[in-house]
Structure formats: structure tokens, C-alpha cells
Amino acid sequence: MNLRNAAPPFVRAEPTSASMLRTVLFALCALLVIPTVRYGIRPLTMAGVSVLTCLVCEILANLLRTGGFSVTDPSFAVTGLVLALLMPLNAPLWLPCASGAFAVLVAKAPFGSFGRNPFNPAAAGAAFAALCWPGLMFTYFDPSEPFRLPAFADCTFRTGVSAAATLKNGLKPDILPLDMLWGEAAGPLGTGAALVVGACALLLLFSRAAHWQAPVCFLAVCALLAALFPRIACSPLTSVKYELLSGSLLFGGVFLVSDPVPAPYTASGKGIYGAFAGAALMAFRHFGVCEQGAWFAVLLANAASPLIDRAVFRVRGWEEKPHG
Amino acid sequence: MDNGRVFLRGAGAIFRNGVLFRNPVLVGALGLYPVAAAGFGMQNAAALSILFVFLALPSQLLLCLVGMLIPKWARPAAVLLVTAAFYLPAARAVQRLLPGSMESLGMAAALMACNSILYSRAEEYAPEHIFLAVGADALGCSAGFAAVICLVSALREFWLTGGVWSSGTPGSGIGAGLDLPFAGFLLAGLLAALVQWINIRRADRDPREV
Amino acid sequence: MIPHGVRLEPRKGVPLKNGIVRLPGPEPVSAPQTFAPLKKNAGPSRIIAAAEKAGIVDESDGMPLGKKLSRLARRGPGLLIARCFDEDPCTSSARAVFREDAEKVAAGLKLAARACGAEEKRLAVASRGEARRLRGLRLGIPAVVAGRRYPAGILLMRKLCRNGGRAAFLGAQACAALADAAREGKPQSETVVTVAGDGVRRPVNCRVRIGTPVEKVLRLAKPEEDVRIAAVGSAVAGRTVRDLSLPVTAATRCVIALRDAPPERRYPCIRCGRCARACPAGVIPWLVYRELESGDPDPLLFFHAGDCAGCRACNAVCPSGIDLAAEVRRAAARKEGGEG
Amino acid sequence: MMFAALLAVTAENLLFSGGLGFSRALRAARRPASAGVYALFVTFFSLCSALAGNWLAPRLSGSPWVLYPAALTAAAGVFYLAAAGLLRALAAGFYDRHARILAQAAANTVVLAVPFVQRMLRFSLAETVGYALGTGAAFFLAVLVLEEAMRVCSNPDMPRAFLGLPGVLVYVGILSMAFAGFFGKVF
Q1: Average confidence (pLDDT) over A27-38
Q2: Is the backbone of residue A317 left (phi > 0), alpha (psi -120 to 50) or beta?
Q3: Which helix (H) or strand (E) holds D68?
Q4: How far apart are CA A308 and CA B7, in angstroms?
Q5: What is the pTM of this model?
Q6: Which domains does chain C have, with CATH numbers?
Q7: Residues of chain C falling short of pLDDT 70
Q8: How near does any CA of chain D get to the CA of C266, in Å?
Q9: What is the count of residue pairs from A and D with beta carbons less than 8 Å apart?
């Protein structure tokens, strides 16, 4: 027997950071299934080049920082996949690459990589793409007639109007709710299939890969605001239905808001953070300039999260009095 | 003779510090507004740089001469009054050199009068140093500011239009969006990281230099 | 913040129904040195003297029982509890002792309560099922159920002391040994040790003579060839041993053999906040960690760092594998140094 | 008026969506204890500057346009002089503690920008007052955010080149992206 020394504990109670990331990765891959079945291999190539770019950038950042090649955690893959899923399928393949490079090299590496990033890198990358190439980010092909997209080449297509854009113009989207549930409508690649996103949310919650406070508060506040201030003339319930199912709201709630790293530490702080992000998103839908942008709301909430933490401290009295 | 050479060498060091090692924008975090908000075209950048040098040099030299006569608490007001006075000829000069640029800059040009580089140098540095040092510092700061804003502007203009100094056409560049202030902050951040890296390298090589 | 503790997954444990295996001593020892058994209604000082003479050590904290009882007698605990539950998921020695010798444990607890003047006594058991079993035995001592969450002892203590009550724990084995000493005048010469972990083929609870080398105890459980880690004390807060000739002591509750070392990779804090929920003492480990890491810590933010009980629940729960307990210890030392 | 204040904090947030007065906010964030007083001064001088702008604009409408900013800058100097003189006479201890930030607040870009914004958006007097108050609040918030950004940007895992200011600039750039996404190009 060749015994070694090791530090306790020798049992673990919770998933490790890496296994949490792997669960998220699995959930994200599940979102690729339906588009691949429906439109051919292009969703896979898109996700592939995006993840590859993030990997290359991660290695590059590590080279610059420490001189080593090693990539310690799979967070780059999560960033790459989220970015690919937020893009329209008909976007040129360099678009997720550019935003992935931005996400890793500007939003993550300068702050000390995984665990240190004050902003969700994927949200920052998507925001960058939406600001620099709004035309490419918000032009979707019309999925009503089934066809296959080329795997690599840029494609010509008939543009469709997404539900989010219709709502922005104050009209009621003429998309069947069932189509919205399965993602059979014009919109970003991975955010449409509400049922799959919901299943992913349950997976993340029950495998304890994500905390529940922020996403639940986020969705609750979004639903509440949608019911109270509908953008289109309809019953509150219809408004809630269209607001929650359109754009990247659900996807953002499950995969961007639930990211623990840029969120507050405390449980109640996470709830406030989610609620703040939800309020910001709904305000953005009412007054903002783009048709959708969960990522902008997430960035804003990320910046607010240290302040939320501090407010929670103040309320809880988590600062010992001198000589107390 | 020897004294003069020492002075000149000192002035050279001050100038170099202003341009690179202690760049007011990238190390001092001063005067970020013009870089972030207006630095997306080379013509803007050139106009602001010229305006800056015309404001900085005379106002700092004047304050170097008379600054010590003013009580310390009233000095900020004196600085503001002096820059306000020099703003008129400086703005006229820029308009003569680059016709039309002042109009296109609008608020950004107007707010150069209370630029924080000008203010902090004129209030803290100028009254307490000798004439030559103040002159070198004013020139160095101007060059440093001009270098940063021109670099940032060139990058952003190329991204937006595919050319520099109005040689490209809007929309034919790589993408849109970089005329927004965020790009200015990001580029300034990356340049600041570069300068910090250079400073770290210098300190590692020779700790006495810093 | 309400402490929640950690729910630790039960590992491949020892089947309790197998009972305790006795590890026979290799060489015959002379008959244990005996002393006069106690009378039925011996006074407190005599009970304490018997505990001292018998050399009983409380396995829950490693303190000599006589010393502990006389200290408790001065303080006067309201409630005396015998620990018949195990905190960490690999160990079951206390439960096994309770299954086998509940009557003896109860008798020892009664003696100890008389010795230190406790008004009330309870047996803390692991689950409701055990509590039912205790009621069935009709020993006259009520049960209290310790939770399933680690560290159950500290959490139970907090619960009992919430309304200003004073309580103290005694180990089940120490109680049983006290009963033995009182009845038969026998010194404590044996202890029950759990041998478990994925490095053994036949996990057992075994009764061994104190001073037996760890290696012999381990061999009883048929260890695999490729055991890399041997830990004693606890799976969460214990320590590793490399020298297997070290003796088993009364406080050795378990020997855990593992084939793989726990992963040493550390990630940065991902701000899940689980450590603060897990801590039974109300420390906020992530805050302490963040402050210490910032290089310019603010001692006012070392919230309750001095109260750390060393249970390492924070380490067990941290997904990034940060040694938070060490950080809290550092902070406590710093705070004391700063204020004292 | 409330709306204009809200506007100052959100859409027309000069600090993050326009980059105005950013250098000063960064300076203030290094001494967070005095942030409240600083914001108070900023509010006061914004108000002064807005009123001065209101008063000056019609009087200078015929003269060359370069006169307006110069006059505003000079007015800021006069306001500072008046405020400092008043505080020195009335509350010397308070003045001594906050002399530096009083001067910096008076010469703040965000303060001098208020009259321009007011002209651009054609605010009424009440709205102008609200906007000035909102500017102070926005400045305070910005100082808080920047203080946290500085803490984030001093962690031991940061590349050395980004430690401190460069990191903060990138941080603010990303945050500014969120503002740009909400409101497009403001100035």
C-alpha cells in the first residue's frame, strides 16, 4: 500500500464546479437536437465553430497570462454554445466566432478568467454582436416552409418576422402557441423551443447545477410586468404568454441569469438580482431600441449584483461592530 | 551650460512620461470623456488634439507664473477662468485649421474647457513647478492625449467606415456600433493594459527607473 | 442566517445488522487491572474517581471523561446527552454501540448525570426508527433525534440551546465504559472502530483493543491493493495517516480507506453561497475568504470567525474545493491578534 | 420633473452612456466615504450650471458660438468661488474636510454638460431642476458601481497588465454596452 497525504473532506456533498458546468453543457446540447433534425447539420457546425473559437481564445489568453496551454475548466464551451444558440441560424458563421472571441478575450480573460468574471461572458458577447451587427443579429429566416440550410456557406433565405419584433411594433404575433412551444417560429437558433428550455431548467435545478432563486424571480417579475403592462391590446394572460415565449427571455432566464459567478452571493440577493434583471428586461422591451436583448438586462443586473450584496449585508447586519 | 543640459534632459523625461509611461488618459484615467464619446473619427481626434494643445500650453504656463500668487482655495476658480479665457482663441484657431470640425464636435469641443487633464495639471502641477518643466509637461500631456485619442479614433473609424480620415464610406466597414462610447472605454482599457504591461516590464528590468 | 448544515450522501456504509466484530488480541495480555466496583448509590465524587481510574476517554472530543465530568459538575449542565449517532456518512460506530449495548449506554449516562448533577438526560439517536427502538427497550431515558445533516451534533446543540438552555454531549462508548467501570471495575481497554470506504471489500464495525496498530484494524476489512488514502477520525474533518503502525486510540471512531485521493483541483469561488448555509456556527466563509484574498482585509467583516467549530462543513460543500475552514482559522487568528 | 430626474439616472445617464465626468467619478470611487458629499456638490453645481445656461443662452444668442462654452466655464469658476467663500465663512470645518472634492465637483464635465443636454432636449425649468438632481443621483450610483469595479479588478487572478485601472476601463466599457443597447446613441 502506497499511502499519500490528502486534505479532508473525503466525501463531497455537492457537485463540483466542473460537474456543474458539464450539466449546463449537456442541457445546452439538448437544445441543438430539434434544430438539427429540422434544418440539417448547420446548427451543429455553428455551435462547433463557436465553441472552437472560444477554446482557441481561451488558450491564447492562457498563453499570454501564464505561458501555459492548459485549459482548466469547460466554461469556454458553455460560453460558445450559449452564443451560438442566441444567434439566428442564418447568420454567417463568423458572427458567433467574433462574439465568442469578444466574450472570452475581453469579457472574461482580463478579469482573471472563470470564477472572476464580473459579467456573464456570453451576455457580453451577444451584446457586442447586437450592437455591431444588428442587421445580422435580428434577421431570421422564415421557418414555415421546411428546408435544409447549407452546413457552412452563407445562405439566401426568405426572411420571417420574429414574435419579438411583432410585439415591438405593437402587433399581435400570428404564430400558433404550439409552434412557439416547439420553436417552430422565426427567432434565434436555440431560444424558441420553450418546452426544451423548460426541461433544461428542471434538469439544472434538480441536479443542483444552478440555484433557483434568480431564474424564478426573473420569470415571475417578467410575467407580472407583462400582465400589468401589456404591450399589445389583449388580455393579461395572452400578454404573459407572448412575452414569455417570444425572444430570448426564457433562454436568458435559464442560462444567463442562473450563472452563479456574476450573481450576488446571498440567496436573497440572488432573488433581488433576478427580479432586477426581469424588471430591466421588461423596461427594455417597452422603451429599448432593439427588438430583444435579455443579454443587456443581464449585463445591467451583473453590474448591480455587488451593490445588491452590499445592501443585503446592511439589512442583515453582517458587519460586526468594532468591539461589539 | 551643464545646468542647461540637465534641465533639458529632465524636460525630456517629463515629456516622455506624459506621452507614454504616465499617460494622463491611460494611467491617470483623466480626460476620458472626449476619448469615449467623440473619439470615433480621425478628424474629430485631430481637432480635439489641437484644441487641447492650444488650451493646455498657454493656460499652464500662465498659471505657472501667477499660480503661487493666488491663495490655494481660490485656485480652482482661477483655473476655470483662465481656461475659459483661452478657450476663445483656441477654438478660433481650430476652426481656422480644420474648418467645420468644431460644429461637428458640438458638446465634446465645448466641454474641453473643463477637461480633467487640463484642470488637474493647471491646478496641482503648474503652480508648483518651474517654467521649463511645466512647458514640457504640457507638451507631453498634449502629445499623450493626442496619441491616445488618435489611435482610438483611427481604430474605430476603420471599423465603421473601412478607411481613415474620411477615406472610407459609412457602412462599408467591418460593422456598426463602435461610435458608441463603450468602444472608447474598451479600447482605452486595452491600451491602458498595454501601457501597464510596458511599465511592468520596465520595472522588472530596472527597478530604479520607475 | 439559519444554519442548515450539509446533507452528505451516505456512502457504502457498514451494515449495522452484522453487529460488531471483535478483533482478537494477538498476544495474550494479563488480566486487566481491576478496582472495586461502585456501590449502587455512590456519590458524584466516587463516580468521577472511577472514571479517572478506568482511564475512560470520551471518543467524541478526545477528553478524559473524569476531567470532563468534574468540569461539567462545576458548570452544572441542564441537559446531558449521550451521542448515539454518527456525524459523518462513512462512520457507524456510535450507532453500532447503541444497537448492541443500549442498556449499558443508558446506565452510564445515568451515572454521569448523577456525577455532574444534570437535571435531565437524553439519548441522541440517528433516526426516528432508532428512537422507536429505544422506546421499545423501556430504559426510562427519552430520545432526541439528531438530524441527518452534517454536523448533526453542533446543529442539535444549537437547537437545544436556543432558549438559553445548557447542554453537554457525552460519547456513547464513554458512557458504556463508565457503566462497565462502575459495575465490574473494568478499565476502558477497548473501542469500537468503523472501517469503511471504497478501499475495503468488507466494511466492518470492530471492537479492538486500544493501542492496536491501524494496519491490523484495516486488514480485518480486507483492503484492496490500491488503497491510496487512509484517514482516521472522520471522513469530513479527519486526517490522513501514512504510517499504519500508529495505534488506535479511544477517540478513533473510524478508519477510512479510499482508492482515489479527493481531487485537488481548485477553482475560484463561484459565489454559490452554499458555505454560509452549511456553517453551523453562523460564520460566512465566502466573506472571510473574499476579505482575506483582497490583501487588505477588514476585520469587521470576519463575521463570527472566532466561533468556528472546525467541522469543515464548508469544505465539504464547496463546489470549487476551496479550503474555507483554513481561511476561517486564519481570519480568527488574525482577528484575535488584531484586537488583543 | 420626476421624469427628468429618472431620465438623468437611466436613459440620459451621462456617465455610462456618454462617458461624461467619468474621470472624476473614478477618482471619487477611490475614496468612497465622501461619495455622498461629492454627489451633493455635483447636484448643487449642476443646478447652478443649468440655471446659468438658462440665463446665458438668450443673452448670447447673437454673439459667436464659442462664447457660450467659455462663458459657462467662467460661470463655473464664479460658482465655485462663491460656494467656497460661503462655506469657508459659514462652516470652516466642513470646508476643510471637503475642499478638494468641492473644487473637483465644480470643474466636473458632467456638471458643465447639463446646460447642453437641457438645450438639446428643450427642458422646462422644473425639468431642468429634476435633471440636475438626477445627475447627482447618477453620479452617486456611478461612484458605487466603480468602487465595486475596483474591488473586482484587484483580485489575485487578474493578469498583471489589467490589474487596476485597465480592468476598470474594460468593466465600464462592458457596462456601457448595456446602456448603449437600451438607449442607442445618446450623444
Answers
A1: 91
A2: left
A3: helix D67-90
A4: 54
A5: 0.90
A6: 16-23+43-184 (3.40.50.11540), 190-258 (3.10.20.600), 274-339 (no CATH)
A7: 1-3, 10-13, 25-33, 264, 303, 338-340
A8: 13
A9: 89
Show which of residues 2-31 on chain D sit within 8 Å of chain A, judged by CB atoms.
11
Span A18-316 CATH architecture: Orthogonal Bundle (1.10)
Report the amino acid identity of residue A13.
A
**Cell matching residue D49:** 450650471
A110-129 residues touching D, CB cutoff 8 A: 110-113, 115-116, 118-119, 124, 127-128
**How many angstroms separate the CA atoms of C337 and D136, rounded?**
42
Mean pLDDT by 10 residues, chain D (187 residues): 66 63 74 84 90 85 78 91 91 86 83 80 81 85 87 86 90 89 68
Chains that touch C (3 or more CB pairs under 8 A): A, D
- Specify burial of residue A66 (Cβ count, 10 A radius: 0-12, 13-18, 19+): exposed
Does the beta carbon of D154 lie under 8 angstroms from any beta carbon of chain C? yes
Helix axes A267-287, A294-316, angle to 10 degrees: 140
Instruction: Please state, in angstroms and rounded to a whole number, the distance separating the CA atoms of residues C51 and C73.
Output: 14
Beta-sheet strand order (sheet of C143-145): C143-145, C120-125, C79-84, C167-171
* Residue among A4, A8, A319 whose CB faces C239 most closely: A8
Q: How many other CB atoms are found less than 10 A from the CB of residue C248?
A: 22
Backbone angles phi, psi at C121, to 5 degrees: -140, 145
**Complex ipTM, two decimals?**
0.89
Those of residues 162-181 in B touching chain A at CB distance below 8 A are 174-178, 180
D-B interface (Cβ pairs under 8 Å ≥ 3): yes
- For chain D, how big is the Rg over CA atoms in Å? 17
For chain A, which residues make up each domain, given as ranges? 18-316
> CA B190 to CA B196: how far, in whole Å?
10
* Cα–Cα–Cα angle for C302, C306, C310, rounded to 5 degrees: 110
Q: What is the DSSP letter of A91?
A: S
Stretch (H or E) spanning A227: helix A213-228
Strand C79-84 relative to strand C120-125, pairing: parallel
Do residues C80 and C167 touch, judged by C-beta distance below 8 A?
Answer: yes
d(CA D143, CA D158): 22
Q: Are D161 and D35 in contact (CB under 8 A)?
A: no
Residue percentage of chain C with pLDDT more than 70: 93
Contact (Cβ atoms closer than 8 angstroms) between residue A165 and residue A153: no
Q: Are the C-beta atoms of C215 and C254 separated by less than 8 Å?
A: no
SS3 of A151, please? coil
What are the φ/ψ torsions at residue A255 (nearest 5 degrees)?
-110, -25
> Which residues in chain D are closer than 8 Å to B32, comparing Cβ atoms?
19, 22-23, 26, 169
- Comparing CB atoms, the residue among C1, C8, C286 nearest residue A11 is C8
Amino acid present at C241 = V
| Amino acid residing at C88 | D
How is chain B split into domains, by residue range?
2-209
Taking the CA of residue C156 and the nearest CA in chain A, the distance in Å comes to: 20
C-alpha cell at C82: 449521550
Whole-number Å distance between alpha carbons of B186 and D173? 5
| Cα–Cα distance measured from residue B186 to residue A125, given in angstroms and rounded to the nearest whole number | 13
